[in-house]
TrEMBL record:
The keyword Transmembrane does not apply. It is an enzyme of class 2 (transferase). Keywords: Acyltransferase, Cytoplasm, Transferase. Residues 1-150 form the N-acetyltransferase domain. Gene3D superfamilies: 3.40.630.30. Pfam families: Acetyltransf_1. This is Ribosomal-protein-alanine N-acetyltransferase. Its EC number is 2.3.1.267. PANTHER family: ACETYLTRANSFERASE, ACETYLTRANSFERASE YPEA. InterPro entries: AcTrfase_RimI/Ard1, Acyl_CoA_acyltransferase, GNAT_dom, YpeA/RimI_acetyltransf. Belongs to the acetyltransferase family. RimI subfamily. GO terms for molecular function: protein-N-terminal-alanine acetyltransferase activity.
């Protein structure tokens, strides 16, 4: 597996993976992925040795120098490739980008997705809130989690 910048030609495959992962909710459309890339989001793809997209992740960084915040918008791994460290590698790539600008990182995760929550906790995230009925149309709740900026971690 190799990581690289998510390519526009990968968007149909992203949509395919989204439909597998989030069938009970509102999976992202091709338009949503195009909008994120056009907005300048930091998107990474995980590729098989045959150059097939098997996972993706996206991060938005907002604010100005010394006052950045980052938000993980999505992480998805093809179910056939889960459990192989791909999600962890994608998350670490996003966190490395956030660390470059010393930004705290926020995300939402389904309250019933314990596997993802544990991954985030292992990478310094803590639960800071609950969003009732966050996911649509399922109405599933989400935890808001946050990881302090790297500079804050070093001080503590």
């Amino acid at each position: 597996m190799k990581l690289g910048k998510l390519r526009r030609k990968d968007i149909p495959r992203c949509v395919e993976i989204e439909k597998m992962l989030f069938a009970g909710d509102d999976p992202w459309s091709a338009r949503a992925f195009h909008s994120e890339l056009e907005a300048g989001g930091y998107y990474v793809g995980a590729y098989s040795p045959e150059d097939v997209l098997i996972g993706y992740a996206g991060l938005a960084v907002v604010g100005g120098r010394g006052d950045y915040e980052a938000s993980i918008h999505t992480i998805g791994v093809d179910p056939g490739y889960q459990g192989q460290g791909i999600g962890r590698a994608l998350l670490e790539a996003l966190l490395a980008r956030a660390d470059e600008v010393r930004a705290p990182v926020f995300l939402e995760v389904r309250t019933d997705n314990e596997r993802a929550q544990e991954l985030y906790r292992r990478h310094g995230f803590t639960q800071i809130g609950l969003r009732k009925r966050y996911y649509h149309p399922s109405g599933a709740d989400a935890y808001t989690m946050m990881r302090p900026a790297v500079s804050e971690q070093e001080v503590g």
